[in-house]
Amino acid sequence: ILRFRQGFGRLIRDHEDRGAVVVLDRRIFARRYGEDFVSALPECARVKGSAAEIMENVEDWLHR
Predict the structure, then answer these.
(1) Tag placement on the chain: N or C end, fewer CB within 10 Å?
(2) Which residues are CB-neighbours of 21 under 8 A, at least 6 positions away?
(3) Contact 50, 57 (CB under 8 A)
């Protein structure tokens, strides 16, 4: 969990940075311990869906 959170933290260093993290491992939602990983992250938008839906969501967000 610590490494997961550290990796997430390296993406955004200051308030002007932008980035997206895509987790492709279903265990993040399917296993009881997945919630521990999700709750360890800072507050952010979360999207759950197919790979195509997620990619569309990320592309829309990046082009804002």
Answers:
(1) C
(2) 7, 8, 11
(3) no
For a pLDDT cut of 90, what percent of the chain falls above it?
Answer: 59
Cβ distance 19 to 11 under 8 Å?
Answer: yes
The span from the CA of 63 to the CA of 52, in Å, is 17
pTM: 0.70
CB 35 within 8 A of CB 54: no
Spatial separation of the C-alpha atoms in residues 44 and 47, rounded to whole Å: 10
Amino acid at 34: G
What CA–CA distance (Å, rounded) separates 42 from 47? 15
What CA–CA distance (Å, rounded) separates 44 from 22?
12
